[in-house]
Amino acid sequence: MVVSTPETPARSGRRAGPSTTRDDIRRAARELFASGGFDKTTMRAVATRAGVDVALVPYYFGNKRGLFLAAMELPIDPAELVAAAARGPREGLGLRLATGFLTTWDSPESGPALQGFLRSAVVDDYAARAFGEFTSRTMLPLIAAEAGISEDTARVLSSMLFGVATMRYVLAAPAFTRASTQEMIDVYGPRVQAVIDAD
Amino acid sequence: MVVSTPETPARSGRRAGPSTTRDDIRRAARELFASGGFDKTTMRAVATRAGVDVALVPYYFGNKRGLFLAAMELPIDPAELVAAAARGPREGLGLRLATGFLTTWDSPESGPALQGFLRSAVVDDYAARAFGEFTSRTMLPLIAAEAGISEDTARVLSSMLFGVATMRYVLAAPAFTRASTQEMIDVYGPRVQAVIDAD
């Protein structure tokens, strides 16, 4: 047991603070998403496991999607990325989506965390299930709504960009790694647009 | 040690036969592809490791691509699938590609082996490297040539279909598993065609 003194703040003291409550919720969420998947995990169950009032979960994380993003330590919200790309004329949407996606994945700030998440999502059975459910239940409908496209098109675009990310960052296939960010954008931008135009 | 009698054929006896030579080469190839990747593994090195004459490798497997497919126990040759889809009018190529791809992956005969391969390709670092190099060096140029499309478009299409396969068979994302083969074909066919038409 850690004794509380001015020089060494007690763990039990820190755990009572608000930032530790947030961490407790996040830890509980990660455990429950991993063991039960995304669909079956409720915000109430996460609150119970963390030993906090149920109102604190939406207070800190907004909704289950926000809780998942925080639990998985994702540095960006894919829906915000899509919402940002959706602003502007529709004929440039494909290029803006490809640019937003590839620059975020290639950036030194957010890239490593995203790539680490993707690796665990494809390698680990539990993470895979939670990520697959998360994508299906919340991301695809949200992407469709934000971008003004059908869910079928959102599904095709997400598999396309997920495929690029896996080829470039997990398999490190030379055809996908030897190209610069800009070259990838030049290749994918018009083709993402073609899929949007076929909607 | 197994003693050779008419009732129990000796292992050493079987190893001298042609079908065992084939297996020896395949085993040696699998080990070398796993440790050295696709690019650096030569047919000569595989022959040396298997202890066979170098001429026997092309005799049994044609070329390095055929050797890789056999070593990885892939039940189909993706290039043949593309070549078959390429026959017919170009405006139906997207639908034929999506149909060939999805029926093969969903079939009870070839599906399980493909899905097992994909899983190991994304999970295992060594398999990932060999598969990524294999795709980059031999599959993309071949797909481009067979389908009459640019390598950039072949790259986009392969990431699109690889993304579907990973979502459907590795992550088992509900948005990709709850659809039947035909529904998937209906969603992907026109959108694969849109990417081809943008070429």
UniProtKB/TrEMBL annotation, chains A, B:
InterPro entries: Homeodomain-like_sf, HTH-type_TetR-like_transc_reg, HTH_TetR, Tet_transcr_reg_TetR-rel_C_sf, TetR_C_16. Residues 19-79 form the HTH tetR-type domain. Coiled coil: none annotated. Residues 1-24 are annotated as: Disordered. The keyword Transferase does not apply. Pfam families: TetR_C_16, TetR_N. Residues 42-61 bind DNA. Keywords: DNA-binding. SUPFAM superfamilies: Homeodomain-like, Tetracyclin repressor-like, C-terminal domain. It comes from the Bacteria. PANTHER family: HTH-TYPE TRANSCRIPTIONAL REGULATOR RUTR (PTHR30055), TRANSCRIPTIONAL REGULATORY PROTEIN (PTHR30055:SF235). This is TetR family transcriptional regulator. It comes from Gordonia caeni.
